[in-house]
Amino acid sequence: MEGAVSLHESAVDYTKLIDAETWAFIERTNSYYPPDTVDYTIVQQREIYDRMCREFFAGYPDGVSAETTAIVAPGRSIPIRIYRADEPDHASVILYFHGGGFILGGLDSHDDVCAELCLHTGYEVVSVEYRLAPEHLHPAAFDDALAAFEWAAATYRQPIVLCGDSAGGNLAAAVSHTTRDRASKPAGQVLIYPALGGDMTSGSYIRHAEAPMLTLRDLEFYKEIRSGGRGHSGDTTLSPLADADFSNLPPTILITAECDPLSSDGEAYRDRIAAAGGKAFWLEEPGLVHGYLRARHSVGRARGSFGRIGDALVELGKDEWLW
């Protein structure tokens, strides 16, 4: 969900918050994915995004293999990629939903990320290529995410931990809300700078409206195109923060970037789960920006955060709560 510069003026001095390594990552990203990409056609945006992902692709670490297949769902087929470690830990399975503003990305865009999470945890990782807008408006992406979880719950004996970044974090949370009262429900969720449908007139949405990598204008564009401009007031499959009930949700870890308009969503979601008596922990990573998963090999702060994400998945997969 990286993208264009908005018209909103930010008083934040990013030269003080963001270190040299992260600035180098931002500049490299912008060289492949210009700040005005959100103004291009959808086809052009996808071409630019896919090229950027190829440029950042880190390959698979030794000890991990992958198989690409598909889930058969009513009227459609949902591509998935299953990652397996040579030295597996069978305690859990991770179901991963990629980011990309609901219009970009797929199995290849987060291929190396999923492979590295597999190595870190030892768990099988199942990455899901859900349908994208505008060809497939909401709730198509959610329907595919839910179908993927139902398939995983029926296929594996191990507990399923949900994970996703940005738009994928939204889908993971939406699945958790939908399935929380079922016999088969997620064992936990790790949400990485998720877009949860928070108040766009307050908090980080305003404070970081002009943040590098993602702006308030970008978020307004993605929200409009995902829904086709139709109102979905109170629809928790679109905006999990719109739910009136946050009880019985799985243990949740939220990891956000300080320099990101979406950071307040993590805080708000943590607070609502905690108020309902659930387990939730929110960590805002200092000086990082939206999309920093791609910086995990070049930016020390991002490398440290990626390790914390992997550790959180390990612990939730073993039904341990250390927060």
What key attributes describe this structure?
323 residues, alpha/beta, Rossmann fold, eight-stranded mixed sheet, 18% strand, globular, disordered N terminus
Structural class: alpha/beta
- The CATH architecture can be given as 3-Layer(aba) Sandwich
Characterize the main sheet: 8 strands, mixed
Total beta strand runs: 8
Provide the gyration radius in Å.
Answer: 18 Å
Average pLDDT number: 95
How would you characterize this protein structure?
This protein has ten helices and eight strands. It is an alpha/beta fold and 323 residues long. It has a single domain (14-317), classed as 3-Layer(aba) Sandwich (Rossmann fold). Strands 1-2-4-3-5-6-7-8 form an eight-stranded mixed beta sheet, sandwiched between helices. Strand 5, helix 6 and strand 6 form a beta-alpha-beta unit. Helix 5 (140-155) packs across helix 6. The longest helix is centred in the last third of the chain and has 18 residues, at 300-317. Residues 2-9 have low confidence and may be disordered.
Short description:
With 323 residues, the chain is α/β, with parallel strands linked by helices.
Give the arrangement of secondary structure elements:
Elements (H helix, E strand, L loop, with lengths): L13 H4 L2 H13 L9 H15 L7 E10 L2 E10 L7 E5 L13 H11 L2 E5 L11 H16 L4 E6 L1 H13 L8 E5 L11 H4 L8 H12 L24 E8 L3 H13 L4 E10 L10 H18 L6
Parallel strand pairs: 3-4, 3-5, 5-6, 6-7, 7-8
Antiparallel strand pairs: 1-2, 2-4
